[in-house]
Amino acid sequence: MKKELPFLHLKVQESDPFQRGKFIGERVSDKINGNVEIYKKIFKEYANADWDTVQTKALRFVEPIQEYAPEMIEELKGMAKGSDLDLADLIALNVRTEIMFGFSQGVSAECTACALSKNNTTNQHVIIGQNWDWKTDVQKNTIITEIEQPPYPSIMMIAEAGHLGKIGFNSAGIGLCANLLVSSLDKGEVGVPFHAILRKILNSRTFNEAVRAVTLANRASSGNYLIANDKGTILNLETGPGGKENVYYLGSDEGIFGHANNFLVETDFEDKTLGILPDSPARAKNIKHELSKFAEVSVEHIQDTLRNHDNFPNSICRHSEPINQIQTLASIIMDLTEKSMTIAPGPPCENSFTKVYPDFYKKINAV
Ligand SMILES: [Zn+2]
Q1: d(Cα 262, Cα 259) in Å, to the nearest integer?
Q2: Which of 94, 199, 274, 337 has the smallest number of Cβ neighbours within 10 A?
Q3: pLDDT of 123-145, one tens digit each?
Q4: What is the mean pLDDT of residues 108-118?
Q5: CATH for 8-12+108-366, among 3.40.50.300, 3.60.60.10, 3.40.50.2020, 3.30.479.10?
Q6: Which residue ranges make up each domain of the chain?
Q7: pLDDT at position 47, please?
Q8: Ligand 1 centroid from CA 350, angstroms
């Protein structure tokens, strides 16, 4: 029943964005190509869209990404070169959230996340974590990437191969969890995609820079960004597409924060996730409730909470069912103070957790 961490752990040390992308593309070409094949099927199945249509739509996002972070386009060009694909293929992977919800409301990904301040943990560390729930097929193409990229901080993240950014933390002590949100404003319009924003948060040197990565972007889609740092600041940004007018800030008075796939604040627009994922409010409430049971929360307590089966199979620990085939692909806990990531590959009730350290852990902890 237990298995070892199956995710490839890729280390990248290229300061030039194109060379960085090319290095990644060459090393995980099979996985990036595998993801393209998976999304060809998904877009066909859910939106009856062939890949030519997807590519055409994807290329409309080049300009907003170029304006937001030109180095990301260079990195994607390098990844395309290294994996023998077109730039449009790599952009398509990175705008899959926008394309899917622009085409159709039929695909649902789910995640449940949490954050704990120093005052609430047994080791007085800032710890964040989440179950990342998505299509079962994608798991084999998921990788742990460590990127050394001066002048930006170094990153450790877990993501689908080919994605610019995802769940992770950096050497400046900033950590990030993410949840899908869908609102009535999501119409598939062009803007800065979710996965580019995730990367820019991870590229940030300061907490304010990370927040500005969200607020100053002309966002293409809704999304939830749970950002924390090793000094103990925790801020959750619920966003609709557009600019700062559609950003809703949530702090945590008690130092324990939980989030799933619905807006927790009252928004000016309709929260469509409630219709797509009616189980979301219960998961958001449940993760906070479970963690609040402890006077001080340990990593083991978080692991147990991420195994929670209330409302199974649509529980925090999510199990695949025949229709959507969505499950917990990885259960992730990040200690931002220590700079480590503890991961279970798949539903954590069936898979043991393994702790991994980035190379920058040694450098930071040696000082
Ligand atoms: Zn389970």
Answers
A1: 8
A2: 274
A3: 999 999 999 999 999 999 999 99
A4: 88
A5: 3.60.60.10
A6: 8-12+108-366
A7: 77
A8: 6
